[in-house]
From TrEMBL:
UniProt keyword Hydrolase, yes or no: yes
Keyword Cell cycle found: no
One Gene Ontology molecular-function label: deaminated glutathione amidase activity
Name the record gives this protein: Deaminated glutathione amidase
Species: Electrophorus voltai
Domain CN hydrolase as annotated: residue spans: 32-286
Transmembrane segments: none
Uppermost EC category: hydrolase
Annotated keywords: Hydrolase
Taxonomic path: Eukaryota, Metazoa, Chordata, Craniata, Vertebrata
Annotated EC: 3.5.1.128
Length: 312
């Protein structure tokens, strides 16, 4: 069964319109949990961003989603390095506390990442982490992954110039996959998507779902976004959920969009498109995952580590 996405589109940033499809009632009554993959257009206005995120979460919950995924920079996307640092917060600051309250009130799990988290030595070095925060239905933080691969790229011909390491601390390690209502979720963020070692490590430790909240540039997204997400799904035989930023954040930056959900066979089962704020609602059928792994037992065929390091 090929699953279709359910997409909300937003004509005005503050008003999200929901388009009903013929199988919504079936999905809401399904025994399989539902995940909601969100797409938004963050700006430096933190309060406006929160209102959009809150609205998307409420709409997703009302349609039966048990876990909801927001993109990298859900809190804000600054227009300069100085503004990005100035707007950052500690993990138990205002933004995460408000989302934790919302998760508890609605009894839904949230994936929030990356969040601009002030580093442990903020007062002396003014550096931040890019952090992926998982909040459970009781409003408790159950996992925090700090992005390990930082986006330092100069694509002169394509007009892309970003140096994340100028103000961001690389995370020290991966974190174990988290048991959630939609399955065991492994955490990455954006540029981590380009490193299959990360996804394979998470799958080795039990991940059934990989998630990459992102803010891909238009140039890199057009060329690589879907193919990378599908590749990660195929090689790990996991579901892949990738919330995304879309459109113009300010005069200096725009994002590609196309928040995607991919099944373990590599089929795209949800796509928010490249223009609008919205949500793709997808059914997480773990029987599909186990059937894929049973019929093509790739992990059983994987050789010992020494085989792959034989050329070193």
């Amino acid at each position: 069964m090929v699953l279709r996405s359910l997409l909300w589109r937003q004509v005005l940033l503050s008003k999200c319109h929901f388009f009903w499809s013929s199988d919504i009632a079936r999905r809401m009554a399904s025994s399989h949990p539902l995940a909601a993959v969100c797409q938004m257009t963050s700006t430096p206005d933190k309060e406006a961003n929160f209102k959009v995120g809150k609205h998307l979460i409420k709409q997703a919950m009302q349609s039966g989603a048990s876990m909801i995924f927001l993109p990298e920079g859900f809190d804000y996307i600054g227009s300069s390095q100085e503004e990005t640092l100035e707007l950052s917060e500690i993990l138990d600051g205002n933004i995460i506390s408000r989302y934790a309250h919302l998760a508890r009130k609605l009894n839904v799990w949230l994936s929030l990442g990356g969040f601009h988290e002030r580093g442990h030595d903020w007062e002396s070095d003014r550096r931040i982490y890019n952090s992926h925060v998982i909040i459970d239905g009781q409003g408790e933080i159950v996992s925090v992954y700090r992005k390990g691969h930082l986006f330092d790229v100069e694509l002169t011909e394509k007009g892309v110039s970003l140096k994340e390491s100028a103000f961001t601390i690389p995370g020290p390690s991966l974190v174990p996959p988290v048991q959630t209502p939609i399955g065991k979720v492994g955490l990455g963020i954006c540029y981590d998507l380009r490193f299959p070692e990360l996804s394979l490590a998470l799958q080795h430790h039990g991940a059934e779902v990989l998630t990459y909240p992102s803010a891909f540039t238009v140039a890199t997204g057009t060329a690589h976004w879907e193919v990378l997400l599908r590749a990660r799904a195929i090689e790990t035989q996991c579901f892949v959920l990738a919330a995304a930023q879309v459109g113009s954040h300010h005069a200096k930056r725009s994002s590609y969009g196309h928040a995607l959900a991919v099944d373990p066979w590599g089929v795209v089962i949800g796509d928010c498109g490249g223009a609008d704020v919205g949500v793709a609602l997808v059914e997480m059928d773990m029987q599909r995952l186990w059937k894929t792994r049973r019929d093509m037992p790739v992990q059983q065929h994987r050789r010992e580590k020494g085989y792959y390091s034989g050329l070193d």
